[in-house]
Amino acid sequence: MKQKQPTLPPIGMRIIKSAIGVFLGFIIYFLRGCQGTPFYTALSVLWCTRAYNDEAHKMAFQRSIGTFIGGFYGLIFILAERFWFPGVSEFWRYTIISFSLILVLYTTVLLKKKNASYFACVVYLSVVVLHITDTNPYLFVFNRVLDTLVGIGVALAISMFHLPRKKNRDILFVSGMDDTLLPYNGESLSPYNKVELNRMLDDGALFTVSTMRTPAALVKNLQDIRIHLPVIAMDGAVLYDIKENSYLYKYEASYTDLLPIITMIRNHGHHIFYNRIVGDLWIIYYRDFHNEAEKSIYKNLRRSPYRNYLKKEPPVDALFVYLMIVDETSKIEKLYTDIKTLGWNHQYKILEYASKEYPGYSYIKIYHKDATRQNMLLQLQKMCNARDVITFGSIDGAYDVVVHADYNHTVKTLKRLYEPCIWTN
Predict the structure, then answer these.
(1) Which of 28, 295, 330, 398 has the highest CB neighbour number within 10 Å of its CB?
(2) pLDDT bucket at 210, cuts 50 / 70 / 90
(3) Under a CB-based contact definition with an 8 Å cutoff, are residues 195 and 51 in contact?
């Protein structure tokens, strides 16, 4: 297997905004006649520049509260040293500074601003340790507070600045997962994808995913994404609401209708996993395993809170979203050939594909004939009242936007389509 060449991650907007913010802070320093200390402005810019505006505002608020508390107690210490204990030895001076931190920290507790405690201590110590010997320490306290507020203001302005853009909030964007948003079996989305997706989702973008994966397999990959639309899972068999852990729509086939093909599969000596949804509970019926792949699948997935395995025959009146068979590739190919010979592939949606997790093994999955991503996408489009749909995937000719190798390409293209810059139109 050819080893994939390592690639450097792209330079994100937070990095660029941080550099621009620090530069603007220095410009403001010169405009102020070189008053204050631009180092503290730069620190505030770097701390308050965040990926999301809500985080930037939260950090700015914490930093502001901490700065005022630290500056206030720094000024009190300066006055006390000048008028109450002048000429105190350095040892006792540092002793007083250390224990006076109790008052600084306790003030943040009384004000219910514990998150600002670190900033309050930093500002306080910078005043009483680093600048107490300044010619005019009172002026430093003023400039220290002002420097921080300037940095906070610059960071917020940079975070909120965007070129004028049109927002296509009435277009439904639907992306595949594997080999589109992330590599097959990738553990998580790239930092760029997370930040940009969440920003657009918070702004009202209609975005979701469509995948062969089960909802249980999707939850981990989408746990950091603030997706609010249902997802199309199980290759179009279900429409699933991640937030509510609820199956909104599903295509099912009855045990009675499936019995002839079930009988044929059993006669071929194969074991079947029966996947059923009762309410919002996913139940998988199984019997004795026939191969190592089946054992491994059960061992790896049975502890999932989203799956419920039952070792028993399924009820004869049950409805199933799909049946799954996994076996050695040669046996699966023979079974699939016999299924097509008997014409079952015209009555059901039947997928046959090699397993990437278990080399030498393949799957067959049997769904209701209408359980397609296209059909479920129409259901979702009606639900969203979207005027148009744009799809992203890795198969040429099957999607509006085709993605190969670059797993940031989907979000980059989504960004361009969802919020095109007015000036470029």
Answers:
(1) 28
(2) very high
(3) yes
Helices (H), 290-372: 292-301, 329-341
Residue with tokens 């948003």: 181
Q: Is 342 left (phi over 0), alpha (psi -120 to 50) or beta?
A: alpha
CB 266 within 8 A of CB 353: no
Q: Are strands 308-311 and 281-286 parallel, antiparallel or unpaired?
A: parallel
Q: How do 308-311 and 388-393 pair as beta strands?
A: unpaired
Contact 202, 418 (CB under 8 A): no
- The sheet carrying 238-241 orders its strands as 231-233, 238-241, 246-250
59, containing H or E segment: helix 53-83
Residue 81 pLDDT more than 50?
A: yes
Integer-rounded Cα Rg, in Å, for the chain is: 30
Alpha carbon distance 60, 49 (integer Å): 9
Query: What is the model's pLDDT at position 237?
Result: 94
Asked if residues 344 and 368 have their Cβ atoms less than 8 Å apart, the reply is no
CB 275 within 8 A of CB 281: no
| Max CA pair span of the chain | 101
How big is the CA angle at 339 (ends 333 and 341), to the nearest 5 degrees? 105
Look at 263 and 218; give whichever has higher pLDDT: 263
400 contact partners, CB below 8 Å, separation of at least 6 = 390, 391, 392
What are the φ/ψ torsions at residue 274 (nearest 5 degrees)? -95, 115
Query: Which candidate, 153, 185, 94, 227, places its Cα nearest to that of 407?
Result: 185
CA 100, CA 209: separation in Å to the nearest integer? Answer: 55
Distance CA 176, CA 399 (A): 10
Q: How far is CA 209 from the centre of its chain?
A: 13
Distance CA 252, CA 56 (A): 47
Distances (CA, A) of 304 to 220, 251, 326: 11, 23, 20
pLDDT in tens, 126-139: 888 876 555 666 77
CA distances from 166 to 208, 226, 401, 415, 422 (A): 20, 22, 20, 11, 6
In this prediction the pTM is 0.72
